[in-house]
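[retry 2/3] L-rhamnonate dehydratase: previous attempt timed out, resubmitting with same input.
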Amino acid sequence: MPRIRHLRAFTVDAQGGADYHDQPAGHWIDDHIATPMSVYPEYRQSRQSFGIDVLGSLVVEAEADDGTVGFAVTTGGEPAAWIIENHLARFVEGAPAGDLERIWDQMFRATLFYGRKGLVLNAISGVDLALWDLLGKLREEPVYALLGGPVREEQVFYATTARPDLAEGMGFIGGKLPLRHGPAEGEEGLRANVEVMRSMRERVGDDFFLACDCWMSMDVPYATRLGHRLDGLGVRWIEEALPPDDYWGYAELRRSLPPGMLTSTGEHEAGRLGFRLLLEMDCADILQPDVGWCGGLTELVKISALADAHGKLVVPHGSSVYSYHFVITRHNSPFAEFLMMAPRADEVVPMFSPLLLDEPVPVGGRLTLPDTPGFGVRLNPECELKRPYANRRR
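[retry 2/3] L-rhamnonate dehydratase: success.
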């Protein structure tokens, strides 16, 4: 097995890409969506106003001594690039390209004193995904084959979108709508949240499910009231209603929602121990780790095994091909998320455009992955990469 010769971290100036919140004005993803900052009126209208797009995209390359290059993209930008170049590279360079478990463990243990979650796990995730891509290319196999192979011929998708009604016409099995109003907007905002879901239910068929994306914006009493007012509208789950660390609140919310309405969270959780706490406290019915943030594919496999042992579903958050290669190999991941990146949510476009080439998208709400080695995507040469810490400290 070749050894890893170089590990490199880049930033990208182009809008979009892995930092998909970095969009021009007028995009639905930035239009008055409830957030933790919604308690402040001046930060309600735009998520970019409080800095959701400040990190930017991160590109990680891992080059083997035979010249083969694996890569991955995630968020983290220049701060994550610094961590990779100045700290994580020492555990990667010189190691056999197949030693993914040992490399991951060393990166995680070595960063415990300032890491564990957040930006550091973004950086570790990017390195880990690049190493999986490299290993697939060296073995001339797609990543899903390295994970044990597919358990179904194709995967189906729900859409996260401002227009679930349009998503139904595109063949998706359900639509998750980001809510616009949080508790600080009072009863009027609560009524508006309910009415938009009621309106969407009237526009879509009975077999098309709806879900609410709350993006950490609520508290237990408000989310409970919301759930009961949505009862009967075919809302399958309420997602990430509370701050990620409020395990006690999630457990209470799950007990308090109407029968049949599920709770989901995990988009901003990291590491198997964080998800273990969610599972043992019975906080959610569906876990939604982001493979680019939770610790990478090496850790997602462990998170999924824990969830499976607890009888819970794992439906990873976004992350395009990095999720698709995983979902197709797991029985407790029956469908995948697709984030509608068209500004008006009226067409299917690749999630990480323009950064990736050959990025697959569902057609008719379904996708069969090709057998291209690694994750099967290429970097767009028209996107200029910058390596801000090439002369790293040794």
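[retry 2/3] L-rhamnonate dehydratase: The domain at 4-19+55-140+380-386 is CATH 3.30.390.10 (Enolase-like; domain 1).
[retry 2/3] clearing retry counter.
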